[in-house]
Amino acid sequence: GAGVSQSPSNKVTEKGKDVELRCDPISGHTALYWYRQSLGQGLEFLIYFQGNSAPDKSGLPSDRFSAERTGGSVSTLTIQRTQQEDSAVYLCASRKAGARLEKLFFGSGTQLSVL
Amino acid sequence: GDSVTQMEGPVTLSEEAFLTINCTYTATGYPSLFWYVQYPGEGLQLLLKATKADDKGSNKGFEATYRKETTSFHLEKGSVQVSDSAVYFCALSDQNQGGKLIFGQGTELSVKP
Prior knowledge:
Chain A is mainly β.
C-alpha cells in the first residue's frame, strides 16, 4: 500500500479481555516499530523488529504485551487481560533497511479504549 | 537512559504570534534530534531535523538549533498560523539505541484567528 496501515482504527474492549492490533507496513520496509501514545506520557517505544534479527522488546511495559511479525511483513501487537491503563493510541511505523531514522513512516494508529 | 523533555501544553496563541516550544534532552552518545508534528486526524510527520551540534533544522517557517552546551533543541516560528495547530513532538535517535526514536511527551499548540 501507499502508507503504513493499521487496523482497527478504533477498538473498545472490556477490562480483562485480550485484544489484537494489526499493522501493515509499507511494502519492502524491513524495520517495524510499535509505539504507544497516551495522555501525559507522550510517545512510548514498545518494540522494534529489524529483518530477521531478534526484536528489541525493551519497551514492552509488562508480560501482558507481546508482538509478532509474520513473514517479515504484517505485525500483530497483542495485549492480554487488558487494563484501563492500557487505553491509548497504538502507533506503528516502518522504514527501509539502512534508511535513516527520519525516513520513518507512521500509521494513523489504533485508538484502544478499555472500559 | 536517553530521554527527551518538552514544555507542557497546551499552548494557545493568536495568529501571527511568535512560537517557542522548549525541548531538552539527555543522551550518552551523539544523538540526532528531530521535531515531529501530528495534525488533527493525521499520522506523525517529520517536521525538521539536525544531526550535529550547531546545526539548524528548518521547514515550513519552523526552526530549531542543536545546542550541545545546553542540551536543547527548541522549536521556534516567527508568525504562527491557524493551520499550525497540532501536537509537536521532540525526539532523539542514537546509534546506541539500536535505531529507535525516543520521544518527548508532546506539546499541543492551538492557534486562534
